[in-house]
Amino acid sequence: MRTSIIKNLCLILGDQLSDSLSSLNGLNPDTDLILMCEVWDETTYVKHHKKKIAFLLSAMRHFAENLKDNGYQVEYTTLDNPDNTGSFRGEVQRALQKYKVERIVVTHPGEYRVLEDLKTWAKDFAIPVEIKEDERFLCRSDTFKEWAKNRKQLRMEYFYREMRKKYSILMNGNDPLGGQWNYDTENRKPPKQGLNIPPPYLGEIDEITKEVLSLVSKRFQNHFGDLAPFYFAVTRRDALQVLAQFIEQRLNYFGDYQDAMIEGEPWMYHSHISFYLNCGLLLPIECAQAAEKAYHQGKVPLNAAEGFIRQIIGWREYVRGIYWLKMPDYAAENFLEAKRSLPDFYWTANTKMNCLHQCVTETKKNAYAHHIQRLMVLGNFALLAGVDPKQVNEWFLIVYADAYEWVEMPNVSGMILYADGGLLASKPYAAGGNYINKMSDYCKKCNYKVSNKTGAQACPFNYLYWDFLVRNRDKLESNPRIAMMYKTYDRMGADKQSAINNDSAGFFQRIEADEMV
Ligand code: FAD
Ligand code: DLZ
Ligand code: SF4
Fold first, then answer.
1. What is the DSSP string of 477-515?
2. Helix or strand or coil: residue 433?
3. Core-most of 49, 176, 448, 452, by most CB within 10 Å?
C-alpha cells in the first residue's frame, strides 16, 4: 500500500468493466484503492449458466490486471480466496477493517437488489458512500422518468426518435436520414437457402481464462449449460474486435435477416455484442457510431444501420428506463395471472417441438440465442402456456451470458409475457406456428405438422394460441389490436372450438405428467 490512509475505496462491480466508469473518474492512484471481488452471492443468487460465470470472472480478472498496468492500486478477491466472505457487503467490510478508509465510491449498480444493499452501507459502516451516475448509458434514469411523466403510453418508437436527435445519429439536421425514422418494413426477410453466414468470433483461451474455466468446472458443476467450448472475448481489445468483425462481415445483412432462424445457425447476422455491452467492455455510443460510420462509408445500407442503431440507442436504453421507473413493483407483475410451472424441457431440450428443441439446445451450448428465438419461440411458448412470470424471469436471467435483471426483466415481463398489462408492448406477441414456419426452417424437421391446426399431429403453437386468447378473454378482448382475433374465434364452428379446447387440455396434462411433448 502506498499510503496508510485510503481516501476513496472504489468498488467496481462485475458489470462495470469500463475505463471511462464514473467511479474511476478523478481517482488518485496514490491515495485511492480499487476493490473488485468475485463473490459467491453474485455467482449463485440465480444459478447462472456456467459460461456466463466463466466469462464474467475472466473479464473481471483481465480488467483488474489492466487497471494495475495503468498504475492503480487494486485489491482483488478471487472466489477461492479462503478469506472471501461471499458478498459485496462482506468484502467491503473486510476492506474497511484492513485499511483506514475515508469514503466509499461506487457507480450506480445495474440491479435494484444491489442498490438497496448499497444504500445501507453509509449508516451500517458509518462512512460516506457516494453512488455515482452510470454515465455509460445514453439516457439517465431521471431523464427517462421525466420523459415518461404524463404519457399514457410509453412507446419505444417515440423515445428512440428523441435519442436519435439528442445524439445526432443518422440525422439530417432535424430530420432522419432518408426521410424515415424506422426502416423495419424493409427488414425481416424469411431465411433463404444458401446464405453465406460468416463464422462467429472465436477468442483464444489465455492463462487467466484457463484458471477461471478450471474454477468454474469444479465449483459450478450443478449449474445449467456447457462450459466448453469457450470463445468469448474477455478484454476490451478483443471485444472491439468482435464489434469490428460484425461491422465488416454481418451488419450488411443485419436488417434483412434480423428475424430469421435457421437450424444449426445460432449466430445469423446478429452482432453478439450484448455480453460486452452489458459488462462494460464496449460502450453503446461507440457501437452506434461504428454502424453509422459504416453507412456513411457506403459499406452497409440504411435499413441495416438504422435497424442496428435502434436496438442499441432505442430498445436497450428504453428497457433500462422502464426497469428503474417501475422497480421494485415490476418484479411482481402478473397481469394475466399466469401460474403454470416452467416445463422441464426448458432445461433439458427434451421436446418433440423442434423449434423449442433447437433454441434450448443452442442456449445450453452458447449461453446465447438471438432476439427472435428468445421472443417468438421461447418467449411465445411461455406466454401461450401461461407460465408464471417469476419462473420465466429466473430462467432468462440464468441462461444468457448477457442477462442482468435491468435488461432481462422488461423483456420478459413486458415484452414476452405482457405481465405489465401493456406498459411496454401494445399487445401480447402471441403467435401460432405459422409465424415460426415463415421465419425459420424448424418446422421441416418437426414431429408435429405446422399445417395441422388441431389433432394429435397438430403443431401445439396452433391450438395453444387460441386457448391463450380464450383463457385471457376478459383481459384482452378490449384491446383494439387483438379484438379481431376474438371475432375470428367466435366465427369458428363449435367442433373446432372444442377441438382446440381438448387438444390444449390434453397437451397441458401431458406436460404435468412429465410426458414428452
Ligand atoms: P443484436 O440483435 O445484434 O442487437 C444489437 C444490440 O441491441 C444487442 O447487443 C443489445 O444490446 C441491443 N438490444 C437489442 N434488442 C434489445 C432489447 N429488446 N432489449 C435490450 N437491448 C436490446 N438482452 C440482453 O442484453 N440481456 C438480456 O438478458 C436479454 N433478455 C431478453 C429476454 C427476452 C425474452 C427477449 C425477447 C429479449 C432479451 N434481450 C436481452 C434482448 C435481445 O434479445 C438481446 O439483446 C440480443 O439477442 C443480444 O444478441 P446480439 O448482441 O447479437 O443482439
Ligand atoms: C453476474 C455476476 C457474477 C456471476 N459474479 C459476479 C462476481 O463474482 N462479482 C461481481 O462483482 N459481479 C458479479 N456479477 C455481476 C453482478 O451480479 C452485477 O454487478 C450486479 O448484479 C449489479 O448489476
Ligand atoms: Fe415449432 Fe410447431 Fe414448427 Fe414444430 S411445427 S417447429 S412445434 S412451430
1. TT-TTTHHHHHHHHHS-HHHHHHHHHHHHHHHHHHHTT-
2. helix
3. 49
76 forms beta bridges with 36
Query: Are 79 and 39 in contact, with CB atoms under 8 Å apart?
Result: yes
CA distance 346 to 32: 46
pLDDT-derived band at 1, boundaries 50, 70, 90 = low
* 50: confidence class by pLDDT, cuts 50, 70, 90: very high
Tens digits of per-residue pLDDT, 352-390? 999 999 999 999 999 999 999 999 999 999 999 999 999
Tell me whether residue 109 is exposed, middle or buried, using C-beta atoms within 10 angstroms of its C-beta: 0 to 12, 13 to 18, 19 or more. buried
In this prediction the pTM is 0.98
Pocket test for ligand 2, best of 16, 45, 56 (most atoms within 8 A of CB): 56
Measured in degrees and rounded to the nearest 5, phi and psi for residue 75 equal: -100, 115
Cross-strand bridge partners of residue 107: 132
CB of 375 sitting under 6 A from ligand 1:
yes
Assess contact for 9 and 33: CB atoms under 8 A.
Answer: yes
Q: What is the DSSP letter of 73?
A: -
Report all structural domains of the chain as residue ranges with CATH numbers, in order of start: 5-132 (3.40.50.620), 141-198+250-326 (1.25.40.80), 345-512 (1.10.579.10)
Q: What percent of the chain has pLDDT over 70?
A: 99
The residue written with cell numbers 476513496 in the block is 8
Residue nearest to atom 44 of ligand 1 (CA): 371
The number of beta carbons lying within 10 Å of the beta carbon of residue 357 is 21
Q: For 188-239, how does the pLDDT look when each residue is reduced to its tens digit (9 = 90+)?
A: 899 988 899 999 999 999 999 999 999 999 999 999 999 999 999 999 999 9
Tell me what the pLDDT averaged over the chain comes to. 97
Nearest alpha carbon to residue 366 among 257, 238, 231? 231
Q: Which of 355, 375, 370, 345 is nearest to 441 (CA)?
A: 355
